[in-house]
Amino acid sequence: MPESNDVRMTLNYILDISVERFGDLPAIGMAAEPALTYREFYDHIIALAKRLAEEGVKKGDHVAILADNSPAWGTAYLATIRLGAIAVPILPDLPEADVHHILSEMAVSVLFITQRQLEKIYELNQKGLHRIITLDDSRATQDVVDVTPYSSYLEGAIAERKSLAGEEELSFPEVTENDIASILYTSGTSGFSKAVMLSHKNLTANAFSAASMIKAEEGSVFLSVLPMSHTYEFTLGFITPLIKGCKIAYAGKTPTPAILQRLCKHEKPKVMFVVPLIMEKIYKKRVLPQIEKSRLLSLLCRFSFGRKFVYKKIGAKLITFFGGDLELMGIGGAALNPEVESFLREAEFPYLIGYGLTESAPILAGGPVGDITIAVGSTGKPFSGVQIKIVDPDPVTGVGDIYGCGPNIMLGYYGDPDATAETITEDGWLVTGDLGFIDDAGNLHISGRSKSVIVMANGENVYPEAIEHKINVYSWVVESLVVENNGKLEAWVYPDYEFIDEKTHGQSRVERRDYIDGLCTTMRKEVNAQLSSASRLVRIVERREPFIKTATHKIKRYLYSET
After folding, report:
1. Contact between residue 239 and residue 248 where contact means Cβ atoms under 8 Å apart
2. In sequence order, what DSSP letters do the residues of 116-146 get, joined into one string?
3. pLDDT tens by residue, 462-500
4. DSSP structure string for 208-268
5. Beta strand extents in 367-456 (DSSP E only)
6. What confidence tens digit (pLDDT) does each residue in 408-455 have?
7. Fold observed for domain 11-200
8. Which CATH superfamily is domain 463-560 in?
């Protein structure tokens, strides 16, 4: 890793060195399609950056990206930060209200978007947003929103750059390691979201550490299936392969197992990063049925030796499913089902568990690769360059608050010094809000969350208070609590029975019950329409008595959690 100084820990430096070292190698493309070389990718970035600069984008400006993964996404991001401007990646599944909130709060000057996101900005009336560029070249809604197709915009920029060959080129501002590269919103709702400011150094420190741990050789393929707007995929699946001279292949929208298998057969990836949900689905849909349908396999799996034999055979089939050359699958973003991890370990499948937060860009613990002392159920050792400590541990269990420290810790929350002070201590430690312990081998174990945030199986953080606010605006609701139940979200609602009595006066108990059920059904549909897909409620349950609350009338949430 370079020493910490002004420019060698910037994303711009990584790009410059990579094109110098790997210019003719494939860099980035959609899976099963031709890829741009490092030189072509670089030329696109520089041309786009110059065009944006000529249109007035300058250091410190905010440029948003609301789109699915593609080479154009990466080009737009790296062109933005080449200017010293700040990229604002927005999760593609955020609802319209949250998109408007982010674009407004960030005072975005340029927005990169794709067709399926355009509806979210039809009603946007924002001064200062002077260019909307469709990364998929969509033109369909120009009568509603004035958009510029990316390809024509880029072609014009490339042609202009060629016409100026030999002339003095437009110089870019100096960008240093402590300049902000990204601002990312931590949750799917505007009211309770926090805007995390990540510097170039935050992102590159984590990427350099990952690159030193991952043994993939130049030219190897990283298959990308997670949104680049998550730091997990951005740092490990985008910046890390660029450091190593590898090829990034995008699977597009979340692929079905059949499509994923076809793409893996074509690309033969060496490295992938996934959330637990992907592996848990494969385990439930492809592993367990093989065993349950066979009396012989079921019998063998009752014994340790037989189970390992069967699992190794299935593990080999899984590697074949992922193209046959897989050397590392990183699993993070949420807790992996222990039963699934035990299978992966006994199957000798090449996986690693990682742990982190957006605020740590993102990895705090994970690996190292090949360490046989990593315990099942743990997140491995602290990441290279990262320190982890347990604060106020329980004297019996050793469980306490998890703090992390290192060059990857965020600069703070945008416009929120109070929240920043609560999250980063005066001496630079990140208060994660998680509880855990470190075992004798140095592995970090996550025991639970000290905050109320719910982490869904796909890795998304869901803030229940924000959903409860949407529920509590209904006139027939007194109070509510959103909880996780078997990996799904449900809301417990205590109704206003005076309201119910008034509306159902003279009706039978059955009719009264049907009326309340109807209210719950209607509310669930209306609230879900305002939420991202991972935050939606599977059911709403009537609660017949008030919740137990503190002296300040806050519900004692921990009394109703699964733990």
Report:
1. no
2. GGGGGGTT---TT--EEEETT---TTTTTS-
3. 778 778 878 877 778 888 899 988 888 999 999 989 889
4. HHHHHH--PPTT-EEEE-S-TTSHHHHIIIIIHHHHHTPEEEE--S---HHHHHHHHHHH-
5. 387-391, 400-405, 412-413, 430-438, 444-449, 454-455
6. 999 999 999 999 999 999 999 999 988 889 999 999 998 766 666 787
7. Rossmann fold (3.40.50)
8. ANL, C-terminal domain (3.30.300.30)
